Amino acid sequence: MAIVRKTLDEIRAQAARDDPAVRAGLEAIGEEAIAAGAAYDPDNPLLSDAMLDRLEALSLLRRAQERTGANVRELAQRYGIDPDRLEVVAAGRGDPDPTLTAYLRVIASDPQTVARLLHEGA
Fold it and tell me: Please, which contacts does 67-75 make with residues 24 or more away whose CB atoms are closer than 8 Å?
């Protein structure tokens, strides 16, 4: 069974076509009530800031890999990053520092320019 995520507006639009009592109940629910309900859902725990930071760094690493066609070790060598640090990011462990995350964002955005600038300065 697939899980389908919908926004509150999408749910309300569907409810407008459904039972008036259901529609009235949904109209009474606000974003704050939804967030409070999610906080108590054992099947869908809220992510900590540290976990969100790890997921962001991992997403940027994957995007950089896709854009460059490089594996983690190759990416580290090409852009002057400690390969062990990238392995930690790739495994979703540890807390990536903001500098590494920012650098991955730049690489993911324009890997050719970053590589060119690094090699021009060498």
Answer: 67/107, 67/108, 67/111, 68/107, 68/111, 75/107
